[in-house]
Amino acid sequence: MPKDYETLAKVLGHTRAMQLLEALASDGPTNFTSLVESVSTSTDVVSRHLKNLVEYEFVIRNERDGREVEYRLSEKGEQAYQHVQMLCEMVSGSDDPSR
Q1: pTM, whole model, 2 decimals?
Q2: The HTH arsR-type domain covers which part of the protein (predicted)?
């Protein structure tokens, strides 16, 4: 399997990572606490997936006021999320990517 496929699976191949992208796509820029609440999981899980999403430039991490960190989708992240939604629609025949 080419390395690009492995990277794609590593970063976007997890339900929680996709839920984070979905939360950022629907809610816009938000902080870490709100993201944890959006995906209903532990801070460790969100932190791990955000780290990968930021590292591969799907999500942008901005510090505000030197303390609070805000996360938002990059253009690459928006495109990836849209493409994954289209693939989910093709597989399930619906608009609901959680099916």
Answers
A1: 0.82
A2: 1-99
